[in-house]
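Board notes (copied after class):
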Amino acid sequence: MPPSSDPAIGAEQTLGSDARGFSFALRENQGRLELLALHRPDYGAIWIDWGSAELRRRIAGGRKQLLARALGLAKRPDLEILDATGGLGRDAFTLAALGARVTLLERQPQIAELLADAHRRALADPALAPVAARIELRRGQAAAVLPEGRWDSIYLDPMYPHAGNKTALPQKEMQIFRDLAGADEDADGLLQPALQAARLRVAVKRPLKAPWLAGRKPGVEFRGTQARFDVYITGSSAP
């Protein structure tokens, strides 16, 4: 990809190609950090915007929405929550906006860079700063971090499994993240350490027809139109 002539766009930091021929780059553009999949030039750049209209709609759903109910915010808005599979951080920001204190964990270095940039920009925005201040961003493997602490609730949202013989692709940003981070094939191994680290509950987001994580039946299930939340109660926390 040739350098842009737009003076607002900084130089690209190319991250090199992997064994699959996938290549990525990070660049500064208009005060934000962007990720490009150079092997998918038609996709364009992606970045994280915690002030988007979509996120404001999520927050407006309040503590009665499935995400908040699954994590236990409907009864206790001030919970300490570990989002162990950070991704774009939208769920973490929503939970923080609804009153929780959130530890946001991401293991993939480039995604973690995007999250750090989003957090920095949110802290600098007076409208977003009070929420961003309730988020602590950490980088690392969930399997290593989970034994280190205790949280009221733990949220697991691993990359959705492949849809068998279905041909539909996920949205572009999720396709790029799958290219970058893989398919979270170790996700099953996170459930047991999460159960040991959660004072109250663990919530796992899954596609409607996906199997239970680690083959373990949840105590409670919240179903939406496109996904469900499997909830494992670990303490005195009624749904």
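Comment from the instructor: Residues 1-5, 163-170 have pLDDT under 50 and may be disordered. Residues 1-47 form one domain.
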